[in-house]
Design brief:
121 residues, 42% helix, 5 helices, two-stranded parallel ribbon, globular, alpha/beta, five-stranded mixed sheet
């Protein structure tokens, strides 16, 4: 984990065992930041026996294809650990990218954090 203050994420553990992740950056375009975000999320996934992760895109305006690749990697890792991943609060423009790339079929995407939280089993 990077030293505190250097994190690109806001992380909150819920009482229901779901880890909520929110991005600090509005634009997730920079390769170094994407790598760091991937490392941080991987650390969260690996620290839970059966990870339940909710990633909120509430603050995100732009996402690069490398960031999408990192999400796919995280999703595969969570599935490998029999965990669950939900995405929420995706900007309509970014949502369009998920549709075009057919990633909306790979990920469970919810309009709100509440809706995503309710979908965990």
């Amino acid at each position: 984990m990077p030293p505190s203050g250097a994190s690109r994420l806001r992380v909150k553990q819920t009482t229901s065992g779901v880890t909520q992740v929110e991005f600090i950056d509005r634009n997730i375009l920079d390769e170094a930041n994407i790598h760091q975000i991937g490392e941080e999320i991987t650390g969260l996934v690996d620290s839970a026996p059966t990870p339940k992760l909710l990633i909120s895109f509430a603050n995100v305006d732009h996402l690069s294809s490398a960031a999408l690749g990192t999400l796919i990697t995280v999703n595969n890792r969570i599935k490998g650990r029999k965990g669950q991943l939900r995405l929420a609060n995706i900007d309509p423009q970014i949502g369009e990218v998920f549709k075009i790339t057919k990633l909306d079929r790979l990920f469970q995407i919810h309009d709100t954090t509440e809706g995503a939280m309710a979908s965990f089993t």
